[in-house]
Write a structure and sequence with these properties.
Chain lengths: 87, 151
Amino acid sequence: MSDNTYGDRLAIREALQQFGRLNQAVSDLSDEADLFAAGFTSHATVNVMLAIEDALGIEFPDELLNRSTFVSIDALAHAVGMSRGER
Amino acid sequence: MLRNRADGGTKSLGMARIGCDLTDVDAVAESINFFGDRYLRRVYTDTELTQSQRTPERLAARFAAKEAVYKVLRTTSGIGYTEIEVVTDRDGAPHVQLSPKAQRVADQQRLGPIAISLSHERGLALATAIAFSDDAPADEDTTQQRGSDGV
């Protein structure tokens, strides 16, 4: 795991903790865990997206605004990379 | 689903597509407080912001409507929130206006106009969207069928 990826996942976890409105602590969730099964809502995805954008200085393109982008921490980390044009 | 025609026949409306969504008004208020204009501009159009007067209840209803429309379209991919616009007419009735990109998605699925209904009470906003897919032949006429069946 590169430093960039580690930092991304940390920022994603912090955004989820603050804005995800999940029904369990983010620290209890694996990177692969289904966030919607943990209480993530469509409206909360917007806040988490904005928080990640603020933290990492990126912007999610509209093409990534779908449920699969927000389904897990892994998926969000992948989307961050896509937003940077890395993948 | 059949629609009555003036000549006594019926025309098929195709299959109904229904989507609904529930949005927490407090969550919208928190988003406005924390992210301000970045949140508002990312999710709502100028018309929506004007007509809702930026009140969390009305914005939550519009957010629910956008999600309900996504469910009718059966996709969110590539369609931003501002590409599904909820406008109200003089009587206060809400209508959906799709961006050209979102309209292409609807057209590809042969969906007719999308009707919506909004409500909010006790901290929750609700929206329902419905459209008919024109999967049946465009001018299906069941008058003769009814006649031949002796009905």
